[in-house]
Amino acid sequence: MATVEKTEGGELSRRELLRAGTAGAVGLATVGGSVALVRPNQADTQEQQIVRGGQEHVHAMGTSGDIDTSLYDPAVHLESFDRGRTSPLPDGRTLREYEITAVDRTIEVAPGVNFDAWTYNGTVPGPTLRCTEGDSLRVNFTNAGSHPHTIHFHGIHAGNMDGVFEIVDPGDTFRYEFDALPAGVQLYHCHAAPLKRHIHKGLYGGFIIDPRDRILEPARELVMVMNGFDTNYDGENEVYAVNSVAFHFQRHPIQLRVGELVRIYLVNMTEFDLVNSIHVHGTFFKYWRTGTRPDHYDYTDTVMLCQGERGMIEMTFEHPGRFMFHAHQSEFAELGWMGLFEVHG
User: Of the candidates 155, 160, 72, 165, which has an alpha carbon nearest to the alpha carbon of residue 119?
Assistant: First the structure.
């Protein structure tokens, strides 16, 4: 059986978890409401073997068990886009109308590890809103939570639609109306004070504005929101992830095909850390910062982002196999921000 260890007082900080993880396989469990270290038995370790190039290597990081995906599935969120209710306008443009509700909800950020979140529409991240450049947007916001909230959209809009001073108290509603500008990878989040608490608790999501006069090449499109969770309220994250669940895409690799064009909309909403990053094994990718300049991209395999930074990645894999993607801060990777692409020939 797996054994659980914790520090005096029942809490295990991320630094202690990291140090313990360097000696063996690492998992996460809850002990008295805190994240604790799990040392898998030999059978658990063998199940995590990864075959690369005919050689077997034991990957000694991961979690035991799985989350309840009936409440939230990171893989479903990966490819879900809310395009709103659409209707034509007299000027030929499209009106898109969205419904967003803030609600308090306990979410599972690792198997058996719960986090008391503030959410948009019940999930962290909130729904990925998608529209076309120049569309007229109407976002009906209801605050069903226990604290005042707002929605601040990154982009171009009027001052009274900025989601900073228009505080929405519990039980109240507000309608945001603005045009979708500029095209690119945007985001939205709560801007009520204290800002770091409202963001860290989970009030954020992706906001994709497709270009009107430029058609993107058909691709497998994925939304990855990088985030972290302070599960013991010490001002440091104990769990890191993409789309909120530690090691989920390691346990459930993303299935791709050799030569398939993959487009990732990448957003960093990690609180308490200055930067986050993504590194993809086995290939290089094109990276458009914010996705606003089609003529300007980097060709690399690693990018770093501050909170609120985002961009668009396009890549293909030339070889079949299992390829990691993870934060290139080792601490983040060892505490959950790690996954796999499983590429088929």
Answer: 72
Question: Would you list the domain boundaries of the chain?
Answer: 3-58, 74-210, 220-344
User: What's the full length of the chain, in residues?
Assistant: 345
CATH 2.60.40.420 fits 74-210, yes or no: yes
- CATH class assigned to 220-344: mainly beta
Contact call for residues 312 and 288 (beta carbons, < 8 A) = yes
Task: Write the burial class of residue 50 (CB in 10 Å: 0-12 exposed, 13-18 middle, 19+ buried).
Answer: middle
**Tell me: the pLDDT tens digits for 79-109?**
999 999 999 999 999 999 999 999 999 999 9
Q: Is the confidence at residue 174, as pLDDT, over 60?
A: yes
Say yes or no: do domains 74-210 and 220-344 share a fold.
Answer: yes
What's the token pair of residue 70? 């009936």
Asked if 240 and 337 touch (Cβ cutoff 8 Å), the reply is yes
Contact 261, 218 (CB under 8 A): yes
Instruction: Report pTM.
Output: 0.86
